[in-house]
Write the structure tokens for this entry.
Amino acid sequence: MLNIVNKPFLGLFLFVITGTAAFAQTGRFQQSVDYKMDVDMNVTSNQYSGTQVLKYTNNSPDTLHKVFYHLYFNAFQPGSMMDERSRSISDPDRRVGDRINALSPNEIGYLHVNSLTMDGMKVDFEEVETILEVTLPRPILPNSEVEFNMSFIGQVPVQIRRSGRDSSEGVRYSMSQWYPKMANYDEQGWHSNPYVGREFYGIWGDFDVKITIDKSYTLGGTGYLQNPNQIGHGYEDEGVTVPKPTGETLTWHFKAPMVHDFMWAADPKYRHEKVKMENGITVHHLFIPTEETTENWEKLKEYTPKAINFLSEHFGQYPYKQFSVIQGGDGGMEYAMSTLITGGRNLRGLVGVMAHELAHSWFHGVLASNEALYPWMDEGFTSYASSLTMSEIYSPSENPLAGSYSGYYRLVKSGKEEPMSTHSDHYHTNSAYSSAAYSKGAVFLEQMGYIIGADVRDKGMHRYWNTWKFKHPNANDLIRVMEKESGLELDWYKEYFVYTTKTINYGIKEVNPQGDHTDIILERIGLMPMPIDLVITYKDGSQEMVYLPLAIMRGEKTPEEGAPKRILTEDWPWTNITKKITIDRKMNSIKSIEIDPSKRLADVEQENNKVEF
Ligand SMILES: [Zn+2]
């Protein structure tokens, strides 16, 4: 297995506590937040009240006259945008469907702001369903900090999607998207998207959260517990006797540095198991022990640390000291330093969903591209990383990305494909969104390995991490990193594969004997141009490669390890529909000619890719 145990513990996590508000080398900025919240949860009424002190720093060059908060729980009400969207979309998510519409007043969710001040001054605010529009009493100037003070009340909805109470597996509280959360403002302006059930985008900052709840409940989620020896519930240090609580409640105190969200879950039936990794990371597993869960969750404890090590080795060191896998929610969903997953699964399903949600820690958690705007950079890259992880830690696969390719091909054949650049809220169908975000997004990275070489792509992913962690990279930022790593121009790849639905289809048109030589005519049938790896296999079993980079790449990929020897390298200008190649061998010595035997080229029509003699 991969080994990171020798790295000094302190060095691993120092980065987390250093902010990166303005980063001169990119000409960009990011806002910063510092939340302090105190929450009281009533486990009988399922209602909670809280206070929030938010230090907000405007690092932008702009003067802000308004700010916006997300109030996600208001989506769980009949007639909400999420309800309308879920009922009118042609392929509804079965978890939602018309369930929001059927919620009674004590089953709905809500989140209301009772009072709000900025630096002690009253502010005007208006609740517009899932967004609180705030008109400021005084503008926030560039490079200045203000303090918002708020009180709020909420009701936890019956579990419909992601968060809620009393999940189908009996978990009492899955508390994600539960507090008034400042919307992000970046170089593309405000991102105050109403919640219709899709993706998220948050601001980096520190969270200090106190939750008071019935003492029988065990909690887990984002953040390090500050008072473990007073709380117990499996968090106490070894050998410590936890004092009996004096009242009916306990106040759990969590701190989470440099995260962009805060989730918690709670249930009186949770079993809590800790695993301390050799590199100092503590992995928590919380689940309700039943016949369906106990055996597999006990085994899961062995796989989560392995996955953390593999992902750290391949994509960058996991920067927090803790990760929690918690039974809850309605499938699998990623949160800062944690995940909520459903628990009653076979072992493969359980390890698979853990690996996927954990891999999000790299792309959603730390790189944190705007997932609403670039869902493929989160879900796609996470699918890519978790497929590799599963192949490494669970069952080796010769082509871990095969499922992503077939998902993309199905999307193309469905005729419902929309460009990957579509905002996740605005895809016409759920299936076009998920196939583009998950499958085509994963293909994007695997195919990047075809274009620039797998090794260079892998190095590029580390460089991407080192350049852009905690900075919200966009599509162009990734492309620039890969250009720098490979020395090739790659803007065309982004423009075709991300912004359009044009597809790749190359074919071998003709093979003609020319005495001692053989002429091969290739044809570009699809609208998207790509470099071509053409492998010729001779009757004696040997292989050679013809490499045809696009002229617009302004260079060639370095030969990949294990690839056949290149006998010819020639640019293929994208304007040219056909390309003739002449090789110095008699046609009757050739056994087969094939475009990309590695199958990384996402060629939507592969019957014409190989000729056998
Ligand atoms: Zn995911």
In short: The first helix runs from residue 9 to 13. The CA atoms of residues 87 and 97 lie 6 Å apart.
